[in-house]
Design goal:
Helix content is 37%, strand content 20%. Strands 1-2-3-4-5 form a five-stranded mixed β-sheet. The chain is α/β, with parallel strands linked by helices.
Length: 110
């Protein structure tokens, strides 16, 4: 797991461990990024299914309740199968776009 920070956004890139291990590490290190927008970059993983994405739901909900963005990047996930409660996009560019839109909405009180 690699942490990169750009302004108020933390990008967490998954390289080797399983999704379940990654989620456990995220929960253990949550204070490290709790005040940032978060991008989980799963681009290097070959297969991502609905169950893999659902593993992030608790962390995502917690983060979004705190008024911060939580976006997962995976070009392998079937975006049509993803639940509405979690944001999954195919590219990092789109993740940044989502964060920008959500920040505008928060600024407007939407």
């Amino acid at each position: 797991m690699i942490f990169d920070k750009e302004n108020n956004t933390t990008i967490i890139t998954q390289e080797k461990s399983t999704i379940i291990e990654l989620v456990k590490k995220l929960q253990a290190t949550y204070p490290r990024f709790e005040n940032d927008n978060v991008i989980i970059n799963l681009s290097v993983l070959k297969q991502i299914g609905l169950q893999d994405i659902v593993e992030f739901l608790e962390v995502s909900n917690r983060h979004r309740r705190a008024k911060h963005s939580f976006v997962i990047v995976s070009s392998q996930a079937n975006l049509d199968d993803m639940p509405d409660e979690i944001v999954v996009v195919p590219t990092l560019k789109e993740a940044y776009d989502v964060i920008e839109m959500e920040e505008m909405e928060r600024d407007l009180g939407i």
